[in-house]
Structures are given as C-alpha cells and as structure tokens.
Amino acid sequence: MQVIETLAEGLKREIKVVIPAKDMEARMNERLADAKDKVRVNGFRPGKVPVGHLKKMYGKSIMADLVNEILREKPTSILSERGEKSATQPEIAMTEDEAEAEKILTAQADFEFTMAYEILPPIELKSVEGIKVVREVVDVSDEEVNEQILKISESARSFETKKGKAADGDRITMDYVGKVDGVAFDGGTDSDAELVLGSGRFIPGFEDQLIGTKAGDEKTITVTFPEDYPAKNLAGKEATFDVTVKDVAAPAAIEINDELATKLGIESLDKLKEIVRGQIESQYGNVTRQKVKRQILDQLDALYKFDAPSKLIDAEFDNIWRQINTDLAQSGKTFEDEDTTEEQAREEYRTLAERRVRLGLVLSEIGEKGGVEVSEDEMQRALFAQLQQFPGQEKQILDFFRNTPGASASLRAPLFEEKVIDKLLSEIDVTDKKVSKEELLADDEAEEGDKPAKKAASKKKAAAKADDAAEGEEAAPKKKAAPKKKAAEGDAE
Description:
This protein is of the alpha+beta class. Helix content is 45%, strand content 18%.
C-alpha cells in the first residue's frame, strides 16, 4: 500500500492511497479460501467447491466488502501513523466511473482513493499564572428571602368576597364575550373566569377598566390587541368585551409563618427559608460563574492566537446563524431593525464562531493534558436532566442518544468544559468581591453570542431570572391552571 501526501497547506491535508490490485486479489483469495469449507453450492460436496467457481460467484461481492472495510478502517490508521488528528471526519473520494470500478472489483486495477481533511493545530499550553479574575459575590439578606417567599405565597393566597368597588389587587369573577367588529371571536369567551386586578395576565388596558366595578355590574370594555400579538387575526385590532361582574373578593393578608410553609408543602418556616435562600444563592451563583467564565475565556482568547480548522468554524457559524435567523423570524424583525445589515452580522458572527472554536480547542488541550475526565455517572445525570426537560418523550430521547452518532458528545462537551473551568479556577488568581444584587446583574456588554441590539435585553433577562430565584419546585407548588385565561388573549396565546 502506498500513502502519498498530495497537499500540505496550512492545516489542510490530502492523502492519496494506492493498494495494488495483486494485494486486493490476495486478500480476496484469503476470504474465498476461508469460505470454501463453509458455503454450500448445489452440485458440490462440502469443502470441494473449486476456488475459481467461488470466485466467479462471490468474488465481486467479497471485493466490495474489502473496499468498504478499507475505506472504514484505513483513514484512522493512516492518521495514527502520521501522528495527526483530523478536525472532522476525513472526506473520502474514489472513482465514480463504472468501468474503472468494475476493474477494481475484478482485481484488474489498483484500488485508489483520496482522503482530504484538516488537522487539529498543535497547541503549546502557556502558563496561567497571569490570569486574574474577580468573582462577584452577593450576600442574600433575610429581607430578600422574605420578599421571594411572598411572591411564592401568591399561589396560596385566599380571597374573601367584599362589598363595594373592585380595587387593584382584588379578584374579580366574571363572564365575558370578546368581539371584533361586533362578531365574537374564537377564544374570547369565558364563564366564571377569575382575574386578579393588576396581575398583568390580560392585554394592556383590560384590567384597568375593571377597577371600580362591583358585583352585578355589566360593562363593555374596549381594548386594542398589541401589534405583535401571537394570533395574527387579532394583532393590532380593536376589540370589545361585554363583561358581567359576578363577584369581587379582597385578598387576605399573608403572614410568613409555619402555617404558610405548610400550605406550600414545606414542613416548617425555617425549612422554607432554607430552601428559598438556597435557590436565590444558586441563581446568583450561576450569574457569578458565567461572569467569571467570561473573564477566563477573554484572557485565554488574548493568550492563544492560531488558525482554527475552517470546517469547524463553518459548522459553528452555521449553528449560530441558524439560531439568529430563527430569533429574527419569531420576533418578526430584520437585520435593519437590529441596527445592522446581513453582511455585517455575518462578519460579526463569523468572528464569534472562530473565537468559540479556537477557545474550544484550547480548553480541550488544557483538559486533556490536565487529566480532566467526565465520569459515566456524570453522563447519566446529564442524560437524566435531558429526560426531565421532555416529559412523556423519554423513550424518543433515549433512542436518539443511543442511535445517533455523536449525540453523547453533545452531553459530554459542556460537562468537560465546566470541569476544565473548575481546574483553571483552582490554578489562577481569583479575588472575591462582595457586590449588591444590582451590581452583579449589571453588565456593560452583551453576553457572548447576544445580538448587538439585544444588550439591554440580556440585562433584563438576567434580572428576571434572579427575581424568580425562589420559584423552584421544592419550595413552590405547581401553579393552578388559569381559568381559560387572558380574556383578551383567549386561546391564541
């Protein structure tokens, strides 16, 4: 077998492999000799079938199997012998001419194929002594814990019927019929619907017009659906709702005590506070870690400058670009709405893809040289977390990971990366800094991967997550299903 390098340009390599016809024929004859005592052919006793007859009957199929085996096994062994690692699966090419293929299968011509690939660049690890990060830490106050408990307790709040007019925070029980141009629309009708005024569950303007009503009142409310309303047939349209108020109830006071904890399914107030505090700390801890991780990656990015395999960059860019276009389509926006152009966005995200690939290779090298491994138990826990995200689809998810090549790598990669970050945190200079909640959640830049016009939005998302910190499954029972909710939104939500 001849292995000839035909291209060595940067990270790109191309190899031509030639296996002489006589070698292919010899391997085929070995298979035929082995099959001689096993096959049954009419007219011949077992073990007495002439090799020439077997060759005529099975030669081509055996040769085809040999070709497939070579294409499956040789690229790996060739890379190993050359001491190279391919960034992606090598691209294999062989003749597509039927006449030439026929000659190969009958051992009349040498078997030739080429393999094209990009090698992973050699990375010389540098000292991490100069890397310094600031880890922002927030102390969770008793006041914040109590505030979150009050938010959670809304699901357990009771209401008592009152006389007089409805005020903000009161619960109204009502019947309503929604109409556009005088015609009732699907999803706009309900009976005995309950709505807490000020909850923001209905479209803007609906709840405000119910303030001051009382039991027995009939009122027609006029509102306009938002332009970005999910139901296109209602978006931007004016609608009226004929409302009959059946009951007005005032909220009972909430006291943070053992009784409240019991209503929420927790054994005691102390245990409830412990759970809520832990959830808030976990949320803040996630934000802290992401900010620390970004500091580490920024400094690694400055330390390591090398060309990354273009195919890896292309694949990463395609993933990013697909998500960007999905986000734009869902929001009904264009690149111009985001104060950029498609060309500028492509350039920006191409740069981001290159950075991600390069840093991924650096972290992989650090982890490999540092002996970082992901255990089977950790993989199982990650898989279980995936299953929890798709209740009722457990079998499909398991089948996907079992039958899809590379699927398990999608579980392993983020685990490996986080363990490498942990390793770096144990080696670099880390300074803890006490900050307020507002300081922790403030950020001058959009997170890596955010669109330029989404910088402010990323802050709001982070703040929202922290505000909802205590609403975990352990402390809060599942919310009751809303009564055919959102009068003005109906079923089109």
